[in-house]
TrEMBL record:
It holds the Pfam family ABC2_membrane_6. It comes from Paenibacillus agri. The chain crosses the membrane at residues 24-45, 65-86, 107-135, 147-175, 187-212, 232-252. InterPro entries: ABC-2_transporter-like. Keywords: Membrane, Transmembrane, Transmembrane helix. It comes from the Bacteria. This is ABC-2 family transporter protein. The keyword Membrane applies.
């Protein structure tokens, strides 16, 4: 019964997006344009050389092209509207209806995010992968690295959801959280390695990035994909870090939720 409810909630989110089919081409064009710009930036940085030295050793231009494409693929999932969704429900009063549903508020938000991801897989991810593989000659990982990469990406996406959901709960106190979302977006872009791999960071930025969870969403999975991380000890350490951060944010959001429901102030409802 509960599974059917989750499925229907997810499908409703998916169906609601089908009403905006004109946006599909715009989003896809935006993704392709972003990939193309980043690739040509790396072409310019490499110049006549096909190799660059980094903290991860020698990096080839083809590896950087693959990095850009794989990062864009992950961003299709990692980019979500969870913070704005929570804020909107609180400010509009829709949160009152969610509280009486036979499922947790976190599950409601998660199912809606999952439905959005299903939509983006069909209309953004698949075309992006096909075009990238055809024109950019993306490298494929070994079977072992590919499987571990999928595990790390899955964990990273759950971690990303917990981060954005926890930040979104701030809306119970401050209602409008677009400023917080802007700051979070900047931190993720800088310290996740989504645009610039941590290989090329200065020592101080590397230390800061390792104190934050964002690199576990982009940088670490892509490093495994490219074979930059191979030892089982290092791979296990990455998985354990993901699980530790997930547990930490899960406990934090539970604490915030327990406080939020006691002082819920709904505007307009």
């Amino acid at each position: 019964m509960r599974i059917a409810l989750y499925r229907e909630m997810t499908l409703n989110a998916f169906r609601s997006l089908l009403a905006f089919r004109a946006e599909v081409l715009l989003y896809l064009f935006g993704q392709l344009f972003k990939v193309l710009v980043q690739i040509y930036i790396w072409y310019a940085l490499f110049g006549d050389n096909n190799l660059l030295s980094s903290q991860a050793g020698t990096v080839s231009l083809q590896e950087m092209i693959t990095y850009v494409v794989v990062s864009s693929v992950i961003s299709v999932f990692a980019t979500n509207d969870v913070i704005f969704s929570v804020s909107s429900k609180v400010s509009s009063g829709e949160i009152a209806m969610d509280l009486i549903k036979p499922m947790s508020f976190r599950s409601v938000i998660f199912c809606q995010a999952l439905g959005t991801n299903m939509y983006r897989i069909l209309f953004e991810l698949i075309p992006l992968v096909i075009i990238s593989m055809s024109f950019f000659h993306v490298q494929l990982p070994s079977l072992a690295n590919g499987l571990i990469f999928l595990i790390l990406v899955f964990n990273g996406l759950i971690l990303n959801f917990l981060i954005t959901y926890t930040i979104g709960l701030i809306a119970f106190w401050y209602i409008l959280v677009w400023q917080v979302n802007t700051v979070l977006g900047g931190l993720i872009r800088l310290f996740s390695g989504a645009f610039i791999p941590i290989w090329f960071f200065s020592d101080s930025l590397v230390q800061i990035s390792y104190l934050l969870p964002f690199r576990l969403i982009y940088y670490e999975p892509i490093s495994v994909y490219l074979g930059k991380v191979t030892g089982w000890y290092d791979l296990l350490a990455i998985v354990l870090q993901q699980l530790a951060w997930m547990a930490g944010f899960l406990l934090l959001q539970k604490w915030m939720w327990s406080r939020a429901v006691h002082k819920l102030v709904v505007q307009g409802g």
